[in-house]
Design brief:
Blueprint (H helix, E strand, L loop, with lengths): L3 E5 L2 E4 L9 E6 L2 E6 L5 E6 L3 H13 L1 H12 L2
Antiparallel strand pairs: 1-2, 2-3, 3-4, 4-5
Length: about 80
Amino acid sequence: MSPTIHREKGYRFFFFSREEPRMHVHVMCETGEAKFWLEPEIELAKNFSLSRLQLREIESVIEAHSHEFISAWKEHFGG
């Protein structure tokens, strides 16, 4: 299961239900996908075919919505 937690600028932000416990978010669009750590700070963990421009744009969306993403993580995973 991978619930969508946010959509913006053609990006889908989501979690995988059975993955590592460190808080993070996945993002996908037509051209690729990435994974970003949410704590202790927002940081790129993995990138699959996204440009630097896309990664900067995604990071800015995550920064703008980080409280929502962290709350969604805690609600979904019970922490």
